[in-house]
Predict the 3D structure of the following.
Amino acid sequence: MTDLDHLFERIAAGEIPSYRVFEDEHVFAFLDINPLSRGHTLVIPRRRCERLEDLPGEVAAALGRALPRIAAAVIGATGAPAYNVLQNNGRAAGQAIPHVHFHIIPKYPDGSGLPHHWPARTLDRDGAPELARTIAERLT
Ligand code: AMP
């Protein structure tokens, strides 16, 4: 464990200062200290879970309820015409802090916000049925 592992838990507990925008029993939200754009906000569970799939259902539900409200508030306050919600899992996916966090990132006409780079590929239609079945089996 490093200091970074517990940074967001300590922010949610008020031990480290932040620009808080929302909190309830399970959820805490605050301004990102290095924003991609004005209003860039982080939404976290109070208790540390490293990745999305680790979240207890009750906490996931609380995050799901809070996210649209917080997004609406960010957009209302900033006037940004668009926004992205980003959530990274694993270092290879860009997760620097091992505590689940959703980024709400306003996108402005000047281009500030999440850079749009979407190198889409073509679905492998031969492998798709088996892939879909294998994923679906894990959800039953
Ligand atoms: P990620 O790369 O998805 O793990 O994002 C981590 C985010 O946490 C980055 O956008 C950082 O700017 C942000 N961050 C790191 N430390 C702080 C802090 N003390 N207060 C607010 N945001 C922070």
Observations:
- Strands lie at 20-23, 27-31, 41-45, 82-86, 102-107.
- The radius of gyration is 17 Å.
